[in-house]
Every structure is written in C-alpha cells, then in structure tokens.
Amino acid sequence: MQKLLDSTRRLQRVLRWSAKLLWETDRTNCLLLAAASLVIAALVPLSVVLMAWIVNLVKTGLTDGTLATMDVWTWIPLVGAMVIAAMAAVEVRKYCNTRLTERVGLRARRVVLAHTVQLDLASIEQSEVQNEIASVALEPGGVIVKSVTGLIDLVCSLIQLVGLAGIMLFIEPLWTLGFIAASLPIMAAGGLLSLARHRLRLKNAETRRWSRYYGRHLTNHKLVPSVQVLGLADLLIGRDSERHVELHLARRKIDRIELGAKVTTMTLALSIMLMAIHSVIVHAVQGTIEFYNFLAFWGAAWRLAKDSPKIATSFSAASKAWLAIDHFHRFLNLRQPKESRSRQFPDSPQGEIVINHVSFRYPNSHRDALCDVSLRIAPGETIAIVGHNGAGKTTLAKLIAGLYRATTGEILYDGISHSLIDFQQFHRRMAFVFQQPLQFEATARENIALGDWDRLAEAPEEVERLAAELGVAEMIHDLPEGFETRLGRMFGQYDLSGGQWQKLAIARALACDPAIVLLDEPTAGLDVYAEAELHRCMQRLVRDRTAIIISHRFSTVMDADRILVLDQGQLAEQGTHLELLAKSGIYSAMWHVQRHQAA
After folding, report:
1. 388 lies in a domain?
2. Which of 286-295, 473-482, 542-551 has the highest mean pLDDT?
3. 549 has which bridge partners?
4. What are the phi and psi torsion angles at 343 (to 5°)?
5. Looking at residue 340, what is its pLDDT?
6. Do residues 258 and 404 share a domain?
7. Is residue 460 part of a domain?
C-alpha cells in the first residue's frame, strides 16, 4: 500500500512539473492542443449517432415511399462540417505537438546540460553516475510533452469510451459491461509492460555505454589509427556485437510477453464484443429494438473495437513518459551542489591560497587520495608539485581549482573559505591547463577568445595582441587562413599537432588575466626546443601571478620558488630545488634518475 501511495505521489509530482513547464513555455499551443484533442474525442460518439439517424431516415423513407419528400439532405452539411472539424482538429493537434516538442525540448535540454556540468566532478567521474547521465535523454522535449499529452489522450479516450459505451449500454447493457471489463486488462498490461521496459532501459545503461565506447574507437579519427595498427578492429566489432545481442535478448523477452498478453486480452475482449453484436442482431430480427438502435449499437461497437487498442497504446506511452520524467527528476536531484546563502569573492584577488589539514577520498574508494595536507601559497609565488604517478598531484590541483570538494579540512582563497567562495567568479580569474586540453572546433581566434569570451568575442585586435604576448602569434600566422583558420578534424579544415594544441590551450587559459595559474603537465607533447621556448614564456607570463605547476620534467619545475613533493597522498618534502637536492630524499632520487635517463 505504501509503495502505491509513493508511486501516486511521484506521478502527481511528474504531472505538475511537466504541465507547469509546458504552460510556462507556450500557453497558446497548450490550449489549442487540449481543445483539439477534446473536439476529436467528442466528435466520435456524435458521428456514430448522427450516421445511425441518417441511415434510419433513409430506410424509413424507402420503406414508406416518402424519401423524395424527406428533408434528409439538410443533414449532409452537418456531416461535412463534422468531418472537416475532425480533420482540422487532427492537424492542429499535430502542429501544436510539434511546436511544443521543439520549444520544451530546447528548454529541457539546457536544463540537462547545465545540471550535468554543475555536478560534483568526483561524482560525475563514477561509472554509476555516468550510467545515470546516459539514461537521461539529451532530447527530452518529446518525453516531457508526451507526459502531458499522454494524460490528455487518456482523458479524451475516456470521454470517447464513455460516449460509445453509453450508446451501447443503453441498447445492450449486459454484454457491454462484459466487454468493458475485458478491456481493462489490456490497459493494465500496457502500464506494466511500460514499467518493465523502463527498468530494462535503466539496467542496460552501462551496456549501451560500452556499445558507444566501441563505436567511438572504430570511428573517431584519433582512435582509428591505433585500432588499425594493433589489429583490433575484429575484436572491437565482435565485442560491440555482443553488447547489441545482450540488448536484443533482453528486449525480446519483454516483446514475447507483450505479444502473448495482447493476443490473449484482445481475443477475450473481441469475443465478448461479437457476442454483444450477435445479441443485438437477434433483437433486431425479432423486432424488440428499433432499427435505429441497431445501427447505433453496430457503429459504436465497431468504433470501440477499433479504438480500444489505441486506448491501451496511449496508456502505455503515457506510462513510459511518466517513468522517464520521474527518472529525469531523480537525475536533476543527483548530487546537486548545495549553494551557500552568501557567496563571496575578493574585489581584487591577490592569489593567496591556504590549505588547512585537507584530506580527500574519491567516492567508493577505501583510501584517501590526499591525507592531511597543509600549506600556504603566498600571492605571486610559483609552486611546483612533483611526485610519482598516483601521488595525488592532479587531485590537489583540482581541489585548489574548486573542481573537487575536500572530504575534510578547508581551503582559503584570500582569506575566504571554499564553502563561501563564488566559484563562478573565481574561475573567471583562474587559469587551469589540463594534461589533455580541450581542442575546440573553432577558428584560431575563437580558440583564444574562449578564455575570456565576454571581453574578447568582439575584440579581434585584442586577441591578436594577446597571441603575440603569449607567444602563439607566429604559429597562427603560419596557418592557411591565419587567425580565421577553422581548427579540428570533425568540422574544421586544419588540425594542429599535440604540442601546438597545448600552446594554444595555455594562451587561451591566460587570456583572462588570471590571478592564479594552474598548469598540469604544461610541456606534455612538446619537443625539447618547444619546451625550452614555452619555459621561457612561462617565466614571463606567471610573473606577479600565483602559479602552480605540475610536471614530471624537472627542467620545468627547478626554477620554482618552492617545490612540493607528494608521496602516497601526503606532503613528504618541500623547498627549493637546491634545498631538496641537499636532503637526498625522494626529490633527489627522482632528479638523479631523470638526469641519468637524459644522459
């Protein structure tokens, strides 16, 4: 009983939310769609009664010879008007449904994408959360509209059903009640099967993700070369086929159940319907009912037998839409970041960062990635972070950037706690270059302007000045169309090398004149000459800025004001390059190994 109450409450919440969204998006088309649906529903039983009346008039006129003097033709314009009204209502409904799907789809898609981007990064990296995201359609407009129009369809179908059943009940109540009772399992089966299909879709979300994964490796221009060289095409195609077979087998089971349920329930309902029609025919032959009643019953029974499966289909589609919107709601509540009542950001950020006893553990992990780290980074100081793979370097950088939230401890930015900082403003004054920077399918000019789009979108001269200052102007001028060259292979006309993309990403990150600069392996993908050039450029660019540099290359970090050595998530050593060499600890050992490899 409690589960039924909970399901009812969720259904009410879904319908209220969907109806409110549709009403706020396009009231005119909402009203027109509802009105057109009601017109279609009302015209069906009216047309049955009218046609029975006209046919009865014609029969009577033929029987007593008064057809020529009868006023039958006055009914023909009314029939025509009803047909035209029905056709117009159908077309209006289609038009309104299309417009609502478009407008609501755009609005809902923006909600989905905006919420996904705002999810906690540590959570969004989990496989379970990826499955949730994959289960939410990025084109949800049709589902949202269907959740409301499905209810309208059900109401209109019930109006139509009541009208037709009322005609039949008036003429033959016993068999009509039997037919109605036999039709109920059809709708119930439709709802249960919709629930089963919805649960199957959620269950198979990871299987579909695997299929997309294999497809990406077989079609992406950056991944196909590795697949070809390693000879993995047959293996990946085979595994992709296995995933599709899994999906097909799961769906096949429900399809068979649906086939059996529909054949059984519809056979029962139609058998009772035929018995009802036989009973009325007998009454008509015996003269116990009027010919008009016989015609009306026959017409109503034919329409009811024809439309009752549509009622079940409408119920099934509406149930599916309601379940999808319920999942949509749960996705929007998925690890929703809690906003503080008071968000703060310094008027003139200096770049001071204080880390007090910070620990961090990834969800579902049994150990801390960072453990009780404390340090202070002074404004304008250049800090380098080194350590073995998995030591926690990138994790610490993402904590400082506000992409992760500390499990315990606190981070202060110019004296403001991370729980109070306005990260939307903070990220506008911070540069973060990741190990694998984004490669935007855009012009070279736009690729730099995206670092501070509000300021640089309509300032081409400023973009060129920044490019020259940041050391990428010469590289861009060598492109086929200079700053207007569209980069990338998906939609662009020219692709850069990995090192060139890295230099462009650094220029983009520094375009916002940041107070804090975080560089995660900034020289990755660069040859020794490009690395030396970038190193000289960085020395100039990070001047008077707080800079945090993560690198495995000691030539990049040795000039930092202070070097932090992380080991198994703990701050093991810190000091200048010479101080750490003198300690003969972890840093010194790594330094000598790298020198030996270079030699």
Report:
1. yes
2. 473-482
3. 384, 519
4. -95, 140
5. 47
6. no
7. no
Asked if 493 contacts 456 with a C-beta cutoff of 8 angstroms, the reply is no
249 and 367: one domain? no
- Pairing verdict, β 353-360 and 516-520: unpaired
Give CA–CA dist 496/489, Å, rounded. 9
Owning domain of residue 591? 353-436+516-526+546-598
Specify whether 293 is located in the same domain as 384: no
Instruction: Judge whether 6 lies within some domain.
Output: no
446, part of any domain: no
Half-sphere exposure of 304 (CA within 13 A, CB side): 31
Q: How far apart are CA 435 and CA 448, in angstroms?
A: 18
Alpha-helical runs (H) found in 172-232? 173-203, 205-219, 224-230
Predicted confidence at residue 332, as pLDDT, reads 74
pLDDT tens-digit profile of 357-388?
999 988 778 888 899 999 999 998 999 999 88
Q: Note the maximum CA span of the chain.
A: 124
Model pTM?
Answer: 0.63
In angstroms, the Cα distances linking 254 to 200, 242, 251, 317, 324 are: 9, 19, 5, 15, 18
Contact 311, 179 (CB under 8 A): no
CA–CA dist 395, 377 (Å, integer): 17
Q: In whole angstroms, how far apart are CA 347 and each of 423, 425, 426?
A: 14, 10, 11
For residue 127, the domain's CATH number is 1.20.1560.10
Tokens 């000459």 correspond to what residue?
529
Do 328 and 358 have their domain in common? no
| 297-331: pLDDT as tens digits | 777 777 776 666 666 666 666 666 766 777 677 77
Distance, CA of 201 to CA of 137 (rounded, Å)? 12
Residues 299 and 361 in one domain: no
Domain check: are 319 and 399 in the same one?
no
| pLDDT the model gives residue 59 | 65
pLDDT, greater one: 200 or 418 = 418
Cβ pair 485, 443 in contact under 8 A: yes
Which CATH number fits the domain that encloses residue 390? Answer: 3.40.50.300
Could you tell me which of 43, 293, 280 has the C-alpha nearest to residue 175? Answer: 280
Residues 413 and 522 in one domain: yes
